[in-house]
Design a protein that fits this description.
The chain has about 130 residues and is mainly alpha-helical. The protein has helices spanning about 5-60, 65-70, 90-105.
Length: about 130
């Protein structure tokens, strides 16, 4: 086979492969862009649902809504007195964990005043 024809055939095949690779890459880019758009739309929908849920919870926790439900359901609940409400500024999980751990350590005798003397007897064999 003529070397010129062989070279031309290799150039045509190489450029065809490069063109096919270029088309495939453009297709992959568009597929990835569509997937990203779907994910972004899903995130926007989740954010919207979160905002709706937050608004609904705030609406349900309103004092007038609670009083209306108390009357409608005949619960007979009364608002708390001034001394019954205590606002805690620190992290409640950390505070309750420390409180629980303190009672566990006290119950097991680590911080208690009870002392149990332990004596050892060493025997020797002759």
């Amino acid at each position: 086979m003529n070397p010129f024809v062989m070279g031309t055939l290799l150039v045509v095949c190489g450029s065809g492969a490069a063109g096919l690779a270029s088309v495939w890459m453009r297709h992959q880019i568009s597929v990835t862009a569509n997937e990203n758009r779907i994910i972004e739309n899903h995130l926007v929908e989740i954010g919207r649902m979160h905002q709706q849920m937050t608004a609904w919870v705030a609406e349900e926790q309103d004092i007038t809504a609670l009083l209306k439900k108390n009357n409608a359901w005949h619960l007979g609940l009364v608002p708390p007195q001034e001394g019954q409400v205590q606002i805690i500024a620190q992290d409640s999980v950390a505070r309750l964990t420390a409180k629980r751990d303190q009672s566990i350590l006290t119950d097991r005798g680590i911080n208690s005043d009870v002392r149990n003397p332990i004596t050892f007897t060493i025997t020797t064999q002759h």
